Amino acid sequence: MAPPSPAFNRSLSLLDLTLLGFGAVFGSGWLFAASHVAAIVGPASIISWIAGGIAVLFLGLIYCELAAALPEAGGMIRYPAYAHGPLLGALLGFITVIAYSSLISIEIIAARQYAGSWIPGLTANSAGDPTLLGWAVQVAVLSGMLRINISGVKTFALFNNIITIFKFVVPMLVIGVLLLFLHPGNFTTYGFMPFGWQSIEGAVSIGGIIFAYLGLTPIIAVASEVRNPQRTIPIALTLSIFLAAFVYVLLQVAFVGSVPAGMLAAHGWAGIDRLLPLPFHDIAMTLGLGWLGFAVVIDAVVSPTGTGNIYMGSTARIIYAWSHSGTFLPWFGHLDPRHSVPRRAAFLTFGLGVFWMLPFPSWEALIGVVSSALIMSYAFAPVAAAALRHAAPGLARPFRVTCIRVMGPVSFMIASLIVFWSGWHTLSWLLSVQLLFGIIFLAIRALRGTGNMGEDIRSSAWVLAYFAGMLVLSACGTFEGYAIMAHPFDDMMVVIFAGLIFVWGEHVAHRDMQLPDVTADTPQAMTPDTVIANEPVVSL
Predict the structure, then answer these.
(1) What single string gives the DSSP state of each residue in 129-163?
(2) DSSP H helical segments within 150-286, as ranges?
(3) Does the pLDDT of residue 449 top 70, yes or no?
(4) Is the pTM higher than 0.85?
(5) CA distances from 162 to 16, 109, 159, 255 (A)
């Protein structure tokens, strides 16, 4: 008899998963974004953080339903593939692996940039580029992350819990101290919203806010390793979002209120990010709080490093899921029998991380591209959830979003707006690459005679139409486009277009859908009357 295939070890508790989610959200975003967002929006940046939290919460609730029903490793690429066929699996695998692997490097680079303010020889210039020593330190940190991730999920969770608790304590200390230096006039003297409502939209998309919030999917990535996932995943997801939003809003209030009035006298909030590029460290030093600046530097090294470690584990599981979707090399779909982790996928993740640490632009320059790629990977979840409601009504949903008819399209519209706000310079090539990838993928399947070509095209044509339509709207819009459509008419057109695409995608689920039985190891065909599990339903 052949030995049993290795399986994931279900050992993550609610505390482990909540700290994993909060740790993924709370990385380098809080270290850089406060002054960057304030320079874009002014004191109304507080509204931007609240708006970003609400947008991500909507998407998070959709993921709660999907992950509770189908708790699988790398679920964020599996759900759209189940609903709409192999093109979505391949496309999201491609997008998500690029976004996540580059994010690992962004977090390590952020930690090295902050460490460079105290340790000479790590940073080469004012742009934040590394010296040879700095680059070697980054690779050494990445190697340490690899070691943790191939040692088993229990070791990974223990390390993350310790790091995340530390990551929470320091920001709360910063908030408490800076509020003692609050200047109420900072919120009104130079205007609460000096750059208009459109600035809020830009701050949410390219200002670092969505980038800072997007830590939901690491929870989904480890779904196969969670105890009682039907209950644990929804609770951990919502707790992570609320906790992160609470801390982010308080940090922005503390930053805006504690900026010395003299720094605002010449130009108001415009350019405050150049005066305080490392906002909480710089403002602490300006206020004569050297000890607080030192605490921020320590956390600035620990916090993004911890987040990068989470994304290394998540990327490995996404590669594993991509491999099992049948649209990536099957060799990477292997689990290490000793530690029950995707070891081969972890080494590929390490290689990608090293690649992204080659001489590329600094943190701020990468935010727009990575944020857009990340939100794109999130955007298809609402369509997949709605399509599964139609095609597989018998699928047991322990967590059920009762207002999916409203929340589904609204979530997709919000995600589409955030992508649109990224601007033409980013989307002109990001969407073009994805559109070209989709066409090439379908062409290769047609030439090979793989699968049901007619059904593949029927169930996924809406995706290609979405990319093409968003390209046209971005070119015609006011966000770095040619301004053929005035603002906010361009936003309205994106909302209408996204709504139409949602309805299209909702009604063209793949007819050859194969959903797994969460109580078994093999997939089964899904019919409208199939019930996979018998769990109590939690509605929201």
Answers:
(1) -B-HHHHHHHHHHHHHHHHHHTS-HHHHHHHHHHH
(2) 153-178, 197-206, 209-213, 217-221, 229-258, 261-264, 272-275, 279-286
(3) yes
(4) no
(5) 10, 21, 5, 27
Interatomic CA distance for residues 264 and 275, integer angstroms = 10
Is 374:509 a contact under the CB 8 Å cutoff? no
The 10s digit of each residue's pLDDT in 198-211 is 788 778 766 668 76
Q: Which is it for strands 538-539 and 514-516: parallel, antiparallel or unpaired?
A: unpaired
DSSP code per residue over 55-97: HHHHHHHHHHHHHHHS--TTHHHHHHHHHH-HHHHHHHHHHHH
Cβ atoms within 10 A of the Cβ of 239, count? 16
Which residue has tokens 């939209």? Answer: 201
Handedness of CA 294, 299, 302, 304 (dihedral sign): negative
212 vs 55: CA distance, rounded Å: 13
Q: Residue 107, by phi and psi: left (phi above 0), alpha (psi -120 to 50) or beta? A: alpha
Question: Which of 223-237, 293-307, 370-384, 517-531 tops mean pLDDT?
Answer: 223-237
pLDDT of residue 540: 53
> Taking residues 72-84, what's their average pLDDT?
90
How many residues appear in the chain? 540
Under a CB-based contact definition with an 8 Å cutoff, are residues 78 and 321 in contact? yes
The rounded distance, in Å, linking the Cα atoms of 134 and 138 is 6
Could you report the per-residue pLDDT of 239-255, keeping only the tens digit for each?
Answer: 999 999 999 999 999 99
| Beta bridge partner(s), residue 538 | 399
